[in-house]
Design a protein that fits this description.
205 residues, mainly alpha, Arc Repressor Mutant, subunit A, 9 helices, elongated, transcription, HTH-type transcriptional repressor AcnR, HTH_TetR
Length: 205
């Protein structure tokens, strides 16, 4: 167990260092050496935990997206215990009221996508990660349908893909426009609500 815990701590410190270095110099400029120096580890420690810089950054991307989706899922669970207005816009505002700063994730995924278009191995890894994230969003949508008694015009997986694409577009625009985290959150919620209103067919039951 101590060895496992030590390995987890090493991975966590490398991911944290990667986040800091990436924020300063970007994906291409973030070398393995710079990440190791920031984390206080050798290259050997790096490669015993990650196959490549790309693997490390996908781990960072997974953690960023997992944290956000976990908070969204928690909000969905809370809907069963509180009185939430049943309009589509109110449901979206309630679910997305999680006050997160998405700029790091937006910058990270924008650079990973650009590199994935040039690198076949990175492209496969990106598509696998993207598919897993969309599947989690589809599960959240299914729970919202059950909790809010809504019917959709399209299957959950198609709705998930459309909602993810809309959120990503809004988040990228917010980052480029240098919007504050609060305003960026509002813009994303507004666009998601607009799309959701088109996807909702009628109350079920």
């Amino acid at each position: 167990m101590p060895t496992t815990r030590s390995r987890e701590n090493t991975r966590a410190r490398l991911v944290e260092a990667a986040s800091e270095v990436f924020a300063e110099v970007g994906f291409d400029g973030a070398s393995v050496e710079a990440i190791c120096e920031r984390a206080g580890f050798t290259r050997g420690a790096f490669y015993s935990n990650f196959e490549s810089k790309e693997d490390l950054f996908f781990e960072l991307a997974r953690q960023v997206s997992d944290t956000k989706l976990a908070r969204v899922a928690d909000r969905v669970s809370e809907m069963a215990a509180v009185e939430v207005p049943r309009s589509t816009a109110e449901i979206v505002r309630f679910v997305l009221d999680i006050a997160t700063d998405d700029r790091l994730g937006v910058l990270l995924m924008s650079e990973i996508r650009t590199n994935a278009m040039r690198d076949e191995r990175l492209a496969r890894a990106y598509l696998a990660w993207d598919g897993a994230m969309a599947a989690r969003v589809a599960q959240i949508i299914a729970e919202i349908r059950r909790t809010s008694r809504l019917a959709l015009r399209v299957p959950d997986d198609e709705a998930a893909r459309m909602l993810v694409n809309t959120w990503e577009d809004a988040a990228v625009h917010a980052a480029i426009a240098r919007l504050s985290p609060k305003r960026a959150e509002q813009q994303c919620a507004e666009r998601i609500a607009a799309l959701a209103s088109l996807l909702v067919e009628s109350p079920a039951g």
